[in-house]
């Protein structure tokens, strides 16, 4: 059954790793990607918002190619689509823009053909495309997710983030692609660094489950990607070392960067101090940045109800 009127979907941004949980931990955040997908006579894109500028407007667009994977898997032919998108997730900054696009495309395409696949199957498909489950899992399920991936199937557990957790992100004024940030990583690590990360991510995950915000500062440390990526984001090492002195529970590179993320106990926030610290350290390195306060998002990808004969932008306007 093809839904001729089309579908609209909202997908949260995400932060991956949270320090030691490289390629395994992810958390959904309160920035959003919106997509409308309709059957059409010929394929056309409507890209709204400054963050969409420069994305391809033809069948090479990631959203189109991912939608076609869903149709192929379901044995449905739907080669022409009208796709409208709006996003307030900055591209290529470490806030999961590619994951939001992949999850949005999978979720919308599945709805469009009558939902033959459940979220578990969509998660496997999303992880196969993104190659790691952290961002796509958070965007698909919301909340905090921890996941494993065996190359064809992902197992995951979703938990609600601690209620008092706030998130401050400092988004530098430059892009850093995930592929470039992964090229900086070694192909092998020492046993002691592996033990360091396994112990830290275990404690961090348990601290989230047990609502032990006091443990986050020591548990959020990492030795398998931060040390190698620090040169790509000047100032990062100092931020990781000193953020706790300025009101953060802990800090990390968000995903592959360059965005830096600080977790904060909202009951203990000190007005302005952490923002000034993050922006000041980056500025000393000649990096312009902006800070945004975000919240963990507990909902994953969801369908938005449509008002007929109302445009895509009008329909989602109440959302932001
Ligand atoms: N809505 C979209 N439509 C098409 N392509 C997109 C869309 N959003 C993101 N992309 C693609 O994803 C790329 C960014 O992916 P990349 O993995 O490098 O960064 P990110 O997902 O923003 O950050 P991270 O994975 O570190 O959290 C963009 O350059 C673009 O090619
Ligand atoms: N876990 C991934 C997230 C970015 O997509 C990384 O750090 O490279």
CATH architecture of the largest domain: 2-Layer Sandwich
The number of helices is 11
Poorly predicted spans: none
CATH topology of the largest domain: Ribosomal Protein S5, domain 2
What can you tell me about this protein's structure?
It is a single chain. The protein has 320 residues and is of the alpha+beta class. It has two domains: 7-160 and 297-309, Ribosomal Protein S5, domain 2 (2-Layer Sandwich); 165-294, 2-Layer Sandwich (Alpha-Beta Plaits). It is 34% helix and 24% strand. The protein is built from eleven helices and eleven strands. The strands form two sheets. Strands 1, 2, 3, 4, 5, 6 and 11 form a seven-stranded mixed β-sheet that branches. A four-stranded antiparallel β-sheet has the order 8-9-7-10. Helix 1 (62-74) links the parallel strand 3 and strand 4. The protein is globular. The mean pLDDT is 95. Bound molecules: adenosine-5'-triphosphate (ATP) and L-homoserine. L-homoserine binds next to helix 4 and helix 5. GO terms for molecular function: homoserine kinase activity. Keywords: Amino-acid biosynthesis, ATP-binding, Cytoplasm, Kinase, Nucleotide-binding, Threonine biosynthesis, Transferase.
């Amino acid at each position: 059954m093809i839904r001729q009127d089309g579908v609209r979907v909202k997908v949260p941004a995400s932060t991956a790793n949270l320090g030691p949980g490289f390629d395994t931990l992810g958390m959904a955040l309160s920035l959003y990607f919106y997509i409308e997908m309709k059957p059409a006579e010929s394929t056309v894109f409507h890209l709204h918002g400054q963050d969409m500028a420069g994305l391809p407007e033809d069948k090479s667009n990631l959203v189109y190619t991912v939608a076609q994977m869903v149709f192929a898997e379901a044995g449905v032919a739907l080669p022409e689509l009208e796709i409208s998108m709006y996003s307030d997730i900055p591209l290529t900054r470490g806030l999961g823009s590619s994951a939001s696009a992949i999850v949005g495309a999978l979720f919308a395409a599945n709805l469009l053909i009558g939902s033959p696949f459940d979220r578990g199957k969509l998660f496997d498909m999303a992880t196969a495309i993104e190659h790691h489950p952290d961002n796509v899992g958070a965007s698909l399920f919301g909340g905090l997710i921890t996941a494993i991936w065996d190359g064809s199937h992902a197992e995951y557990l979703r938990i609600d983030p601690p209620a008092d957790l706030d998130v401050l992100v400092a988004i530098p004024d430059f892009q850093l692609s995930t592929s470039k940030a992964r090229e900086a990583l070694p192909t092998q690590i020492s046993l002691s660094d592996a033990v360091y990360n396994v112990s830290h991510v275990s404690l961090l995950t348990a601290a989230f489950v047990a609502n032990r915000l006091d443990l986050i500062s020591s548990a959020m440390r990492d030795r398998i990607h931060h040390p190698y990526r620090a040169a790509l984001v000047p100032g990062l090492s100092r931020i990781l070392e000193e953020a706790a002195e300025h009101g953060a529970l802990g800090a990390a590179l968000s995903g592959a960067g360059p965005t830096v993320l600080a977790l904060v106990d909202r009951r203990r926030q000190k007005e302005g101090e952490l923002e000034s610290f993050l922006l000041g350290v980056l500025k000393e390195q000649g990096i312009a940045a902006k800070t945004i306060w975000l919240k963990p998002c507990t909902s994953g990808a969801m369908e938005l109800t449509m008002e007929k004969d109302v445009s895509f932008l009008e329909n989602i306007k109440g959302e932001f």
